[in-house]
């Protein structure tokens, strides 16, 4: 529920005189080190009672909460699977009867999957990778697949990007920007927003489930809270949240917006807008609505440069084609310096210096004339959109595709993530060989684009991008349908 709803609930259950204590309860639910699951938990924390009293939570208030039978967690832990690289695939059971033993529940509402991608010791935690800019970096959805890949193809944390100059440049990141993070480095939670998905993308295992139901805002937020509760001692604080798990986030927009509000609330989960990223396969009206109502970052799953190919691998393209997508992005994320695209190359003008310092992500205000258009809001509080591009062998990975991508992104403030495809049962698609991926990236870099290679993590436990979901045994008919 939202904070306002919590206030109303406290007043209804505990009396109007306790309404003001909703703020303290809100902190207790979401702030680091608390994460209460139920009123009974809070009432039973004997050693914490003096601390609770100092926060304005009295014994009588706890008793009222306990008598209400309130439970603050909407998920129940089902299982945890740990990959060889430390990535954790966490399964949560969805049920309206969370207090009831598993064997006694009248029905199960499904199992949702969440992924924790912990930092890897010795690999650093900062630098301009995953779309980061100095200390106030942002993580795209591909943090769910791991760190950036260096030019040599060795997995690491160094970004590989086209930045500026006549043909762009490659730059390796330093670890100096990790000072704003926890000592443990970057820990990313990849959350799900739906049980299954209706979009039907050919490369995604979750799509084979179909859409079973939307998750509530509480179920989305609770994934982050539960991961913090379960693994804070082991890996340290969660630094990044990406909406890149099961489902199409913008197909469940009301719940996602409410979840973002709670996650970004300084008195709530207190996640950074620059490190909270929501992905979409390209629902244009919802992209506009999303950008008007939250400061969280946006990532577009593009995965093709022609409508012919995108229609084939992403059916949503038949409704929102590439032209409409990039028209929307041009409005929402205009580049301060619009480059001039020539034949096969791009002349890049002098770029404004990146505003990388802490504190520059806040709203700057309107145009000075009371104009608060979507574009103005985007210019003031968002620096770029992430373009996600899955590299599929022989499907979308030609050098001509790369050049089209340079052209498509002209005039758009963006960073491009090239993603290694993670095969799964029932697909005929294969990942692009590394030499071709690097050649593709070279075209982007020479076109002046910031382009990053993302290395998969957790794929041995089906925890990598596009591998989440529980799908019945595939029949030969299913397998044939999966062939692109």
Provide the CATH topology of the largest domain: TIM Barrel
**Total domain count:** 3
Write down the CATH class of the largest domain.
Answer: Alpha Beta
Order of helices and strands: HHHHHEEEEEEHEHEHEHHEEHEHEHEH
Count of extended strands? 14
Question: Could you provide a short overview of the structure?
Answer:
The chain has helices spanning 3-14, 22-30, 39-43, 49-54, 59-68, 217-235, 253-264, 284-293, 307-313, 322-332, 374-381, 399-408, 434-446, 476-482; strands at 75-82, 88-94, 111-117, 188-190, 194-196, 211-214, 240-243, 276-280, 297-301, 340-341, 346-347, 385-391, 414-420, 451-454. The chain is of the alpha/beta class.
Itemize the secondary structure elements and their pairings.
Elements: H1 3-14, H2 22-30, H3 39-43, H4 49-54, H5 59-68, E1 75-82, E2 88-94, E3 111-117, E4 188-190, E5 194-196, E6 211-214, H6 217-235, E7 240-243, H7 253-264, E8 276-280, H8 284-293, E9 297-301, H9 307-313, H10 322-332, E10 340-341, E11 346-347, H11 374-381, E12 385-391, H12 399-408, E13 414-420, H13 434-446, E14 451-454, H14 476-482
Parallel strand pairs: 4-7, 7-8, 8-9, 9-12, 12-13, 13-14
Antiparallel strand pairs: 1-2, 2-3, 3-4, 5-6, 10-11
């Amino acid at each position: 529920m939202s904070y306002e709803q919590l206030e109303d609930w406290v007043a209804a259950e505990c009396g109007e005189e306790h309404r003001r204590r909703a703020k303290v309860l809100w902190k207790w639910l979401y702030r680091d080190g608390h994460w209460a699951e139920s009123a009974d938990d809070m009432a039973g924390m004997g050693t914490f009672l003096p601390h609770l009293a100092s926060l304005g939570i009295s014994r009588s208030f706890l008793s009222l909460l306990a008598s209400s039978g309130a439970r603050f967690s909407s998920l129940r832990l089902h299982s945890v699977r740990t990959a060889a690289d430390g990535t954790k695939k966490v399964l949560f059971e969805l049920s309206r009867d969370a207090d009831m033993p598993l064997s006694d529940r009248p029905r199960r509402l499904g199992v949702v999957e969440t992924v924790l991608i912990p930092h890897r010791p010795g690999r650093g935690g900062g630098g301009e990778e995953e779309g980061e800019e100095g200390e106030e970096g942002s993580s795209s959805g591909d943090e769910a697949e791991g760190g950036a890949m260096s030019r040599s193809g060795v997995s690491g944390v160094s970004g590989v990007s086209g930045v500026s100059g006549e043909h762009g440049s490659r730059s390796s990141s330093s670890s100096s920007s990790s000072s704003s993070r926890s000592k443990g480095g970057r820990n990313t939670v990849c959350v799900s927003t739906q049980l299954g998905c209706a979009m039907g993308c050919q490369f995604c295992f979750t799509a084979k489930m179909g859409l079973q139901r939307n998750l509530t805002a509480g179920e989305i937020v609770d994934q982050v809270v539960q991961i913090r509760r379960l693994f804070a001692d082991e890996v340290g604080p969660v630094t990044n949240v990406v909406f890149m798990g099961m489902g199409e986030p913008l197909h469940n927009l009301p719940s996602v917006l409410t979840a973002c509000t709670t996650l970004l609330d300084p008195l709530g989960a207190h996640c950074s807008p620059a490190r909270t990223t929501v992905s979409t396969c390209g629902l244009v009206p919802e992209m506009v609505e999303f950008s008007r109502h939250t400061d969280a970052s946006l990532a577009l799953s593009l995965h093709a440069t022609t409508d012919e190919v995108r229609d084939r691998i992403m059916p949503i393209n038949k409704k929102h084609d590439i032209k409409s997508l990039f028209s929307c992005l041009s409005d929402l994320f205009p580049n301060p310096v619009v480059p001039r695209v020539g034949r096969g190359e791009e002349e890049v003008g002098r770029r404004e210096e990146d505003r990388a310092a802490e504190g520059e992500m806040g709203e700057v205000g309107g145009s000075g004339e009371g104009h608060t258009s979507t574009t103005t809001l985007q210019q003031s509080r968002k620096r770029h959109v992430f373009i996600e591009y899955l590299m599929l062998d022989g499907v979308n990975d030609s050098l001509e595709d790369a050049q089209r991508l340079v052209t498509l992104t002209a005039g758009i403030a963006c960073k491009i993530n090239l993603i290694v495809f993670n095969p799964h049962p029932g697909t005929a698609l294969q990942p692009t060989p590394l030499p071709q991926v690097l050649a593709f990236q070279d075209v982007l870099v020479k076109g002046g684009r910031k382009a990053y290679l993302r290395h998969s993590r957790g794929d041995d436990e089906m925890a990598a991008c596009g591998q989440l979901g529980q799908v019945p045994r595939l029949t030969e008919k299913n397998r044939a349908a999966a062939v692109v």
